[in-house]
Amino acid sequence: MVPLPRGRHAALVGALAVMMLLPAESQAQFGIPGGLFNIRPHFGPGGYGGGGNRNGGRRHSSRGDNSGNSNNTPSSAPATSYALARGASDTVFKGIVVSKGLGAVGVEDAIDTSKHDLVRETQRDYTAAIKSLLTMIDNTSKNRNRQGDSSLAQGDVTQHAIDRAVTQAYETASLGTFEQFVGEQWTNERLRVAILDKTTTEVPGLLVGNNFSRVEMAPIQDIISRAGQSIYKRTLETSELIAVNQATARFTRALFEMHGPSANADLRAGVEELLLAASRVAFKEYEERFVRSDLGVVMRYRAERILVDCLTGNLDEITTSPDKSKATRVQMQDKVSELSRGECRNWVVNAIGQPTQMDAKADKELIKPLPERAVWIAPGVAKTDASMFSRVSQQ
């Protein structure tokens, strides 16, 4: 048997029982709204600290209950009841542990761009890139030397020799052409650092073998020369890809402007499909050349750039139906296919040659770097102006 409480404990238990059973009396005597054990936070339009009851699985707010139960209305409670309710709610809220991620939501701290600025400066710090390459060669030579004597690993690799090799590779690969384009990211320092970054990935192979980790400048110069050609090709691909995106944006904007506000969601969703269909029709015979040519990727980007500019120049014809009204989507598709097989394909042929042309030297002569803002006009000629080139331009 459970022993019954006696004395003060019995009195306290009795008082608590009365307060639970008689919420109205406990409210009047102790200033606790709705009884002692009916206090709980309420996240709703009625605020928190209110009572509420449950009937049939539904909760009814005491504020919205006008059934005549005056004991649940705030007006019948003393002023101290709200203080106690707020104190109880504060205690509950203080016990909530907020994660760091949740606590950071909505914090308006200033964005620290110093790391991004540091990366950008590193990509242009040509002197630091040379020192980094020399440090890597020197440390690796000392660590891998059989005798552990750095004197046996001495060679003719110097900062001046690397600088001259990079300059020669830069000029041989014609990377200076990109430097002439105004408003683009191809600066002299950035391209030189790119050559050294490419070189750094291949130089460690010279330090493995039975050469006592002795590194000569001649093989490093050969690596730098090949790195210059690689950076030229990569830069040309990136430049043409950016130009294709800009040409596509011009076509889309012009199409919507000429076809009205284009509330037609069907037209907006069909722009990409329209251009893909045009590409398939125009380049069907060029696929083999794109695959076999060393500049195949660049050539495809250049061809797509020309095709989109051709379609942009013929938008009046594309967006107008035979009866001079706005063309439907099907009519536009038919017209784009017709242009891709005829006029626009001729533009591409005029710029990059016939599909059967498989001459690497001819491809290098045809695919020259051009400003990203250059636009093709009939009959497939790139239109440029002086504002696209810097003062050192030879155009």
Q: Give the helix proportion (percent range).
A: 55-70%
Mean pLDDT score:
75
> Helix-strand pattern, N to C?
HHEEHHHHHHHHHHHHHHHEE
Strand content: under 5%
Number of helices: 17
- Assembly type of the shown chains? single chain
Explain how this protein is built.
The protein is mostly helical. The chain has 3 domains: 18-39 and 76-92, no CATH class; 115-228, no CATH class; 237-388, no CATH class. Helix content is 56%, strand content 3%. It contains 17 helices and 4 strands. The chain has a two-stranded antiparallel sheet. A two-stranded antiparallel sheet has the order 3-4. Strand 3 (375-377) and strand 4 (381-383) form a beta hairpin. Helix 6 (126-144) packs parallel to helix 9 and helix 15 packs parallel to helix 16. The chain is elongated and about 80 Å long. Mean pLDDT is 75; it is low at 24-77, 80-84 and 98-108.
What key attributes describe this structure?
3 domains, 395 residues, 4 strands, mainly alpha, two-stranded antiparallel ribbon
SSE inventory with pairings:
Elements: H1 7-21, H2 23-30, E1 53-55, E2 58-60, H3 79-94, H4 100-103, H5 114-122, H6 126-144, H7 159-172, H8 176-179, H9 188-200, H10 217-258, H11 265-282, H12 287-292, H13 296-313, H14 315-319, H15 329-341, H16 343-352, H17 360-366, E3 375-377, E4 381-383
Helix pairs in contact: 1-2, 6-9, 7-10, 9-10, 10-13, 11-15, 13-16, 15-16
